[in-house]
């Protein structure tokens, strides 16, 4: 049975997965790159990086994944739907290597990239998008790649089986928060926390059998 997973979603102590305002120059707004410093230090990200707790969590991002779903604001800065040549932030060989479904109210034809990534653009409910992505994943799992809005929507819809968040010890004060509307989440998920010597805390939420 295909599972739906979130990995490496980095949040501030106050629950923001991005700062503001998002722009082409500052994709994470005033957060800059502070939410992901823990990941940049790992072997998962760069040769010669660390091989400890952070790396052990980070590498799970790709294991057994057959498709990704992401939000329009992860795919590009505000206004990208007006640019017919926009193909995402990641260059010719994006790090997804699977069919990748961009949820947007401005769909366009698919874009085939190098390395196995094809971007598909969907205006669909979370249930419909997941059904489409699961079929494309061919029995493997579907990753919900963010940002905060899309992760929150899929969790709210009861569609996420495994949620891995990385709490970074910074306070952003503003941006887009993951937790809004998710009161009582711990009742439907088994929650574990692992502290890393790097200063971040890995939080995992695994859906309880109903
Ligand atoms: N902290 C992390 O680990 C992490 C991970 C990934 C991304 N990010 C960052 O998070 C930010 C993006 O997050 P976000 O919360 O602003 O936005 P998002 O979740 O990426 O995208 C939300 C947008 O997607 C479109 N959308 C969502 N659901 C839809 C549906 N069912 N049907 C059609 N369109 C739908 C809508 O855009 P339209 O109406 O405009 O089409 C909506 O405004 C970026 O800064 C990104 O870099 C952070």
From TrEMBL:
<dbReference type="InterPro" id="IPR002734">
    <property type="entry name" value="RibDG_C"/>
</dbReference>
<dbReference type="InterPro" id="IPR050765">
    <property type="entry name" value="Riboflavin_Biosynth_HTPR"/>
</dbReference>
<dbReference type="Pfam" id="PF01872">
    <property type="entry name" value="RibD_C"/>
</dbReference>
<protein>
    <submittedName>
        <fullName>Dihydrofolate reductase</fullName>
    </submittedName>
</protein>
<dbReference type="InterPro" id="IPR024072">
    <property type="entry name" value="DHFR-like_dom_sf"/>
</dbReference>
<feature type="domain" description="Bacterial bifunctional deaminase-reductase C-terminal">
    <location>
        <begin position="8"/>
        <end position="183"/>
    </location>
</feature>
